[in-house]
């Protein structure tokens, strides 16, 4: 499944095509794929076994690192898996990084990937497949899709490089496909990871949108102590004025320079 976006930000410089975060994610994923690819063909593929996500191993052997490492491995038996994920990462991730900045973009990407891994663990236990191995960055990439659809809902995109539509409709269709496909446990694709990445991304973005700076609340609703402090300051100011007026009367305060 492929996607292509039509440019909507002509102000971005050419180097914005590969911002720092997206560039390094592309490099790391591609490099690990090539190493894994040649390792499998050399009979050394088992070296990578501890880094795929196996829910039963995560919970029984506390292999927590798998929630992170699984998203950097892709199937060494074909190029479709990594090609789709890297195209999605580049097409939608670059504009998100240019909008958010590298730090926030990477935080969001990894959050969606790890969150999708947690959903995989829950889903695999529900479906009775706790020792099924999952690899790939699809969960994180689907998180990028939901973010793009929420931030740029009316941007024109090409679904499967053919059908033009708004981003929000494309994301809705992709989510529906992933949901319906999740009922096919023998598809060989972790649709639970796809849905998990979208769900985690949606919840995170909505929570960020609902946050308000705390100082606004404090300034709009001053407390009792602040009111008492202001009243005390006004009382001191008025007393000082009265004392000064008394002083002027005693010392002939009718000079023209006195205001």
Question: Helices and strands in order, then pairings?
Answer:
Blueprint: E1 3-5, H1 20-41, H2 55-60, H3 66-69, H4 80-100, H5 102-126, H6 138-151, E2 156-159, E3 163-166, H7 167-181, H8 191-209, H9 214-220, H10 224-250
Antiparallel strand pairs: 1-2, 2-3
Helix pairs in contact: 1-4, 4-5, 4-6, 5-6, 5-8, 6-7, 6-8, 7-8
Structural class: mainly alpha
Q: Any idea what the CATH architecture of the largest domain is?
A: Up-down Bundle
Summarize the amount of helix as a percent range: 55-70%
Determine the strand fraction and express it as a percent band: under 5%
**What is the succession of H and E elements?**
EHHHHHHEEHHHH
Major β-sheet, in short? 3 strands, antiparallel
CATH class of the largest domain: Mainly Alpha
Q: Which whole number gives the mean pLDDT? A: 81
Overall tally of structural domains: 2
CATH superfamily of the largest domain: Rhomboid-like
User: What spatial order of strands do you see in the largest sheet?
Assistant: 1-2-3
The CATH topology assignment of the largest domain is Rhomboid-like fold
Task: State the low-pLDDT regions, or none.
Answer: 1-14, 214-221, 253-259
Verbal overview:
The chain has 259 residues and is mainly α. It has 2 domains: 3-209, Rhomboid-like fold (Up-down Bundle); 223-250. 62% of the residues lie in helices and 4% in strands. Helix 1 (20-41) runs antiparallel to helix 4 and helix 4 crosses helix 6 (138-151).
